[in-house]
From TrEMBL:
Segments of skewed composition (Polar residues): 1-21
Gene3D superfamilies: von Willebrand factor, type A domain
Sequence ranges assigned to domain VWFA in this UniProt record: 323-501
Superkingdom of source: Bacteria
PROSITE patterns: VWFA (PS50234)
Transmembrane domains' residue ranges: 75-94
Keyword terms: Membrane, Transmembrane, Transmembrane helix
Protein name per UniProt: VWA domain-containing protein
InterPro entries assigned: CLCR, Uncharacterised_YfbK_N, VWF_A, vWFA_dom_sf, YfbK_C
One Pfam family linked to the record: YfbK_C
Length: 690
């Protein structure tokens, strides 16, 4: 195919041949290898070219056009470079904000202009057999050239270096061809260099390159079943303020994918949102507790018992000092744009919320653990940011060793009057170090008891090990959050910074006893991974979840009143010596569905305190604003159930979720609730696809 801007007997390949004419040739081996690679890559591309409808939904990063314009358009030649040129005619290196492929110049290859020209001519003749390929060889891209650096292909080291001169190449418009180019270039280059992505990562961008699928790991669990009150009237669980599940589900839906069911933890979906529950009357009690009863929207006749907790907010001028250690994963798996580059920006956001007298240390782990920055006052922000910006991804993962080092730094700067916390940022791929997970959890528990807590921030996708990160955060009295965008980092580390860092109550447990005279069956929505034994409630040695300053916690039970026809469990035929369902056990409690008890400890105490209140059949009327908050949380709970298959939601559908959420969206200062409604629409659309 000819270029319409050129005479019919002229093509871009002629220009390339002319410019290459004065280049010394490579060895005959390089020439033969280049030709074979070009033909093989072209055959593979022709067989596998395809497009995907959902690719248009992916948010991508801005191209760095200014960087390309600043480069000089000059040619650099050698035998290995000639090889890459031929590969470039068949496979694409599209210029994106992903890490760019750096191909080193091979040493020991003699130049030979004539052989180079002959190799190009032969490859050109083969390529011209397919007219469609020539049409796609129009738009120039840029392949950056660097001196050779020895490196393991399996785990490339991200090395920040100024590029030398730019080599114009040809590009094709598919992600698959970019991968072909990388693999073919590797056949000739003894090493590869990956330059980190730029620092201006957009808030809602996802990595535009290929992502490994099917290796994300989540804890398997079964949805809480319906329980007969006569058989088991008491339900006990630990509170949970983690939000990682919601963020991961959002990322999947934004990619046009339905999340795997074990990734959907209902309590984390509901507690992602901040609810305007009543504030505590005074600071003697760290949080307020209230109970409301509403109709079940998905099963008329059933009721929803809604338990809300609101922690008090600490004023900024009253915040205790912070002694923080950033433990950052810089292994090879963190090289993608939505991992280490986003980690750096997230840590910078957190720094903006700290006081000048707070201290920050930085430890990293990859092939070996190391201290990047000793404890440094936040007022020296320039030094901290320089240490962060110098980090590069490369090597295998040694998470256990890194954790040990991080705690050593925290202990070295320990302040009993401060918040002492390690903040781990990783994609969750712990495969070296303290190999035994039970030993790792035990280590974190012991450090927790000494006053140093652990919070975990998850990044990226493809090898995201949610199960381990959740467990570590729980054992470390910390929060587990998943950060997929800069907007999410803003939410977790700026808007909710005090809740993330400052604990106001620890080992918070809830126990509900249902009245068999008024309730036939119940079901706890979510908290499957947080269930406790009945005797654990009064045992202060049993660990439970913590509440940070300003945190809200919501728990919802669905109950079937005795008079309802919705019972799923029949009364036993041979139940002797048991009262009949509905018999009045105590006339004084006939107006109660049940009784809620809550235990907690203050951060510096070891003995728990008790809060209790009844679940009244005739609950006092709540104001419209509070009812709006309750209804929105119910919409989120319903959505989470639908994502998991909707076993107990009857005919309730995504449109019903949208209607309930839209009617109770409220003020929505940061747009999180509006975003939720859009996610429901995306789930509806993704589910409709074959």
């Amino acid at each position: 195919m000819t270029d319409p801007k050129q005479p019919s007997n002229h093509s871009p390949m002629d220009d390339l041949t002319q410019q290459m004419a004065h280049t010394p040739p490579p060895s005959s081996a390089a020439k033969a290898a280049a030709r074979q690679a070009a033909l093989k890559a072209f055959a593979e591309q022709s067989a596998n070219h395809h497009q995907g409808f959902w690719a248009r939904l992916r948010l991508t990063l801005n191209n760095r056009s200014q960087e390309g314009n600043a480069m000089q358009k000059k040619w650099i030649y050698s035998g290995a470079l000639a090889s890459l040129c031929v590969v470039g005619m068949t496979a694409v290196l599209v210029k994106t904000t992903q890490p760019e492929l750096m191909v080193p110049v091979q040493s020991g290859v003699e130049p030979n202009a004539q052989a180079t020209t002959e190799a190009l001519a032969e490859a050109k003749a083969e390529v011209k057999q397919d007219a469609s390929l020539a049409a796609e060889l129009e738009a120039p891209s840029e392949v950056q050239m660097e001196p050779e650096v020895a490196m393991d292909m399996a785990a490339p080291q991200a090395i920040a270096a100024e590029p030398s001169k730019a080599l114009p190449a040809k590009r094709l418009g598919t992600k698959e061809l970019r991968q072909t180019a990388k693999s073919k270039a590797a056949e000739f280059a003894p090493s590869l260099m990956v330059r980190p992505a730029p620092q201006n990562i957009l808030g809602d961008a996802t990595t535009s390159g290929p992502v490994i699928q099917g290796e994300d790991e989540f804890t398997e669990f079964k949805t809480n079943p319906v329980t007969k009150v006569m058989d088991q009237p008491v339900s006990t669980f630990s509170i949970d303020v983690d939000t990682a599940s919601y963020s991961f589900v959002r990322r999947q839906l934004n990619r046009g994918l339905m999340p795997q069911k074990d990734a959907v933890r209902l309590e984390e979906m509901v507690n992602y949102f901040d609810y305007q529950y009543p504030l505590p009357a005074n600071k003697n009690e760290p949080f307020s507790t209230y109970v409301n009863v509403v109709e079940s929207p998905w099963k008329p006749g059933n009721k929803l018992v809604h338990i809300g907790i609101k922690g008090y907010q600490i004023e900024r001028n009253a915040l205790p000092k912070s002694n923080l250690v950033f433990l950052l994963d810089v292994s090879g798996s963190m090289g993608q744009a939505d991992k280490l580059p986003l980690v750096k920006q997230s840590m910078e956001l957190l720094l903006s919320q700290l006081n000048p007298t707070d201290t920050v240390a930085i430890a990293v782990y990859a092939g070996a653990a190391g201290t990047v920055l000793p404890p440094t006052p936040v007022q020296d922000k320039q030094t901290i940011m320089q240490a962060l910006n110098n980090l590069q991804a490369g090597g295998s993962t040694a998470g256990g060793e890194g954790i040990q080092l991080a705690y050593q730094l925290a202990e070295a700067n320990y302040d009993k009057n401060a918040v002492n916390r390690v903040i781990l940022a990783t994609d969750g791929d712990f495969n070296v170090g303290i190999a035994n997970q039970q030993e790792l959890k035990g280590f974190i528990e012991r450090k927790r008891d000494s006053g140093i807590y652990l919070s975990v921030l998850g990044f990226g996708q493809g090898n995201y090990h949610d199960n381990l990160m959740q467990s570590l955060a729980q054992n470390g009295n910390g929060v587990a959050a998943y950060i997929d965008t800069l907007s999410e980092a803003q939410k977790v580390l700026v808007h909710q910074a005090t809740a993330t860092l400052f604990t106001i109550a620890k080992d918070v447990k809830i126990q509900v006893e249902f009245n068999p005279a008024t309730v036939a069956e119940y079901r706890l929505l979510g908290f499957e991974t947080r269930m406790l034994e009945k005797q654990d409630f009064n045992n202060d040695k049993v660990d439970a979840g913590d509440i940070g300053a300003g945190h809200t916690v919501t728990a919802i039970y669905e109950i079937t009143p005795v008079a309802s026809e919705n019972k799923l469990i029949d009364n036993p035929r041979y139940a002797s010596n048991k009262p009949e369902q509905g018999d009045t056990v105590d006339n004084e409690n006939a107006n109660e569905y049940g009784f809620v008890k809550l235990r907690y400890k203050l951060p510096d105490e070891d003995n728990s305190k008790l809060i209790s209140l009844p679940i009244l059949i005739d609950q006092p009327q709540t104001d419209n604003k509070l009812q709006q908050e309750v209804n929105f949380s119910v919409a989120v709970a319903g959505f989470a159930q639908l994502l998991k298959g909707g076993t107990y939601t009857g005919n309730w559908q995504y449109d019903d979720v949208i209607s309930l959420a839209q009617a109770n969206k409220g003020e929505d200062e940061y747009g999180y609730r509006t975003e939720f409604i859009q996610l429901v629409r995306k789930a509806k659309m993704a589910k409709a696809l074959p």
